[in-house]
Amino acid sequence: MILLSILGLAILILVHEAGHFFAARSVGVGVKEFAVGFPPRWFRKKRGETEYTIGVLPLGGFVRLEGEMPGEEADPKRSFSNHSALSRVWILVAGVLANFFLAAILFAVAFTIGAKQEVIFSAVVKDSPAAVAGLKFGDAILSVNGEKIEKAEQFISKVENNRGQELNLEIRSGEEIKFVKIIPRLTPPAGEGPIGVAVGETGWESKNFLGAIVEGFKETVNYSALIVTGLWRVITESGASNLSGPIGVAVIAGQAGEMGIAYLAHFFGLLSINLAILNILPLPALDGGRVFLVLGEVIFRRKIPAKVERYWNAFGIGLLLLLMFYVTAQDLIRLF
C-alpha cells in the first residue's frame, strides 16, 4: 500500500507539472526539463529541446523553463521572463488547474464504480470500550443484536438505549466479518459517548457516465470550498499540528484502499484538490508566490530585481523543507 501511495502521489505531481508544461508550450516558452521527483536522477531522456527525468525522491517535481532563472541567458522569443504577464500567469496557474481537473475525473471514476452504502466508525477514541474491543476507523457496522443497521441514527439510538447492557455487534473490517461484544458506558467521559466512537454514513450509488462527470465536478467545487475553510482554521486556530505529511497520506491511503477502489479514487481526488490549493497560496517558491511576483511587476510597472526573486524563492524552499520535516515528525508521533 505504501508503493500504491507513492505511485498515487507521483501521478498527482505528474499531472500538475504537465499542466505547466503544456501551458508553456501553448505560448511558445521553451521547456528545458520536465522532472518527476527530485535529484539525484536515475532516469533521463532528451527529446527535442526538453530533457525528461525521474528523480530518486518521488515526492515532488518541476518544469524548468527557458529564461526562468533571473539573469539566465535565453532565446528572447522562448524566454519565460520575456513573455507577457498574462502568459506567465497562465503557465504558473496551469498546474493548479490541472489538479482541479484531475480531481473531478477521479471523483467521476468513484461515482461510476459506486460504493456500498454503510454506516462506519469515522473515529475511535483511544482506550475506549470500542478501542479495547478492537474496533477501528473505517469498520462497517452491519447489525446490532441481529438487527440490520442502515442509518447512523439507528446505531446511535441502539447504543444510547442500551447503556450498561451487552450489545452484539456484527462488523465488517476490510474483508473480514467479525462479531464483537461491547457494553456501552453509563457515564462516559465528556465528548466520548457510551462506547467512544463517532459514526457516519458512507458510500454512494453508481451513476452513468454523464451523471458521474457532473457529480465529479460538483464534488470538486464543494470539497474545494471545504478545504479552503479547513485550511483557514488550521492557520488561525490549531496550527500545523493537524497537518499530515507523506507518512500520514500513506496510512490514510491504505485505509481508503481497504474500503475499495472507489474510496481510493475519491481519496486521491481530495489529495489533488489539496495539492492545487496549497500551490496557489501566495507563499514563496509556490506557484501562488510566483504569481504574486508577476502581479507585483504589473502593479509597480517594473521588473522585480533578480536578487529579490532569488531570496524570495530560497526563503520559500527553506520554509517548505522545515514544514515537511515537522509534519513528518507529527506523522511518526501519531503512528507510534
Secondary structure blueprint with pairings:
Blueprint (H helix, E strand, L loop, with lengths): L1 H25 L4 E17 L2 E16 L19 H29 L1 E10 L4 H4 L7 E5 L2 E2 L3 H9 L6 E7 L2 E7 L14 E8 L4 H30 L7 H14 L1 H20 L6 H14 L5 H30 L1
Antiparallel strand pairs: 1-2, 3-8, 4-5, 4-6, 6-7
Task: Give a brief rundown of this model.
It contains nine helices and eight strands.
Question: How many strands in all?
Answer: 8
In DSSP terms (H or I, runs of 4 or more residues), the helix count works out at: 9
Q: Which percent range describes the beta-strand content?
A: 15-25%
Strands ordered across the widest β-sheet: 5-4-6-7
Shape: elongated
Mean pLDDT: 85
Order of helices and strands: HEEHEHEEHEEEHHHHH
Structural class, from helix and strand content? alpha+beta
Radius of gyration: 24 Å
Note poorly predicted spans. Answer: none
How many distinct domains? 2
Which percent bin holds the helix content? Answer: 40-55%
Largest sheet: 4 strands, antiparallel
User: Distance between the terminal alpha carbons, to the nearest Å?
Assistant: 18 Å
